[in-house]
Amino acid sequence: MTIIPLTDLNRAEVDTFIKNEWGGPMMVTLGNLYDTSSLPGFAAFDGGRLSGAALYRVDGDACEIAALFSVIQNRGVGSALINRVLEAARGLGCVRVWLVTTNDNTGAIRFYQKFGFALVAVHIGSMEAARRLKKEIPSTGVDGIPIEHEFEFEITL
User: Rounded to an integer, what distance in angstroms lies between the CA atom of residue 32 and that of residue 45?
Assistant: First the structure.
């Protein structure tokens, strides 16, 4: 597996994945709407094929992992991508790396905790406001679980 910074040469594949899987490029976290196609990040390739990506945004001394995906589970892709974002965040002077996922995303919740992220907040009912900004967000998600809340995780650097 090779992990490289996103460039104009490899960004189209990442943008296509986000569009197809999440209705991107517009994303909402904690009531903030942003365009993932303009964010920096890293892409993972295995045998020349896209195997994952991490996009991030910096606000002051905090870095949000705005999008993270792996098309190959349990092979270290997500961990390697997070480690690259942590490295970039340190280089930018950040003291906190954080991310948000919805309450239905139980696999991600488990993964983030195993990686070392701390659950720092549960934003009850926040998806109602998110849907006002992005109407395409479905009402149910993984395993038919209603998508209602956002879980906020962080690692301090």
Answer: 30
Whole-angstrom CA distances from 45 to 14, 29, 53 are 11, 27, 9
pLDDT tens per residue across span 86-139:
999 999 999 999 999 999 999 999 999 999 999 999 999 999 999 999 988 999
CATH at residue 27: 3.40.630.30
Tokens read off for 154? 């962080």
Look up the pTM and report it: 0.93
- Helix count and strand count (H, E) for the chain: 4, 9
SS3 of residue 124 by DSSP: coil
Domain count, the chain: 1
The answer to whether 25 and 18 are in contact (CB under 8 A) is yes
pLDDT in tens, 33-68: 989 999 999 999 999 899 999 999 999 999 999 999
Domain that holds residue 124: 2-156
